[in-house]
Amino acid sequence: MPDTPTSVGVLSNILTAPSLAFAAIKERPNPWLPLLLLMTGVFLQQFMYLQVVDFPWLMDQQLQQAGNMTEAQRAQTVDAMTSLPASAIGAAQGIGGALTILIIYALFALYYTAVSFATNDGHKFKQWLALIAWCSLPGLLGIIASLVNLQVTDGRFLLPTQLNPLSFGSLLGVDQQGATVLETYLMALDVTVLWSLVLTILGYQAFTNRSTAASALIVLAPYGVIALIVSLFALT
């Protein structure tokens, strides 16, 4: 279990005095509070969305976008999925989303650990996992904005990419009809992603004493690889 005073102090400092937070994370890495907050937030976001949205419509929209089914096959799949209770579907989606957060952060922590091993900077997996989790906390603002959006708008015909009012697609008013996979992914990102990336770069720099440019290159490299893979997938 996390040490409450330390965790609460880091929670405050990561938003107001990041340098103090980075020092505390490096000395006493503890990822559980931010992981709990983020995973709970993602679960609630997914669960509440699927209680509000018109699920048959949503399924049909997603199957149309996939483009690999006939109309009859789509109707059969929609009928099968909508036979399940909305609460069960929402819970499954929420748990899947929460676990995805944990898996993604663990993979990034493994990447940073591998870089540490290659450069012999002495930092361990738990330190990197804690840094990643704490630096991702601004994402809670996007989750809260999504939950508020569900309360103040008619969410029955709201696409997942329109759920977060802080997403680039929502803020720019971009019509995502016919968008590529990469464009849809980018438009679904929200402005807090930039905040988290800056925090991660600064945190990596504080941990390793590398230059800002080198830290940015190491932190951003996986995102470039992901964008390349998504682009290649979209072309197939």
Span from first to last CA?
A: 46 Å
Instruction: Profile the largest sheet.
Output: none
The percent range for helix content is over 70%
Broad shape: globular
Overall average pLDDT: 87
- What is the CA-atom radius of gyration, in angstroms? 20 Å
**Number of DSSP helices?**
12
Please give the number of β-strands.
0
N-to-C series of helices and strands: HHHHHHHHHHHH
Low-confidence stretches: 1-5
Strand content: under 5%
Structural class: mainly alpha
Summarize the structure.
The longest helix is centred in the middle third of the chain and has 34 residues, at 86-119. Mean pLDDT is 87; it is low at 1-5. This protein is mainly α and 236 residues long.
Detailed description of the structure:
The protein has 236 residues and is mostly helical. It is built from twelve helices and no strands. The longest helix is centred in the middle third of the chain and has 34 residues. The radius of gyration is 20 Å and the shape is globular. The relative contact order is 0.12.
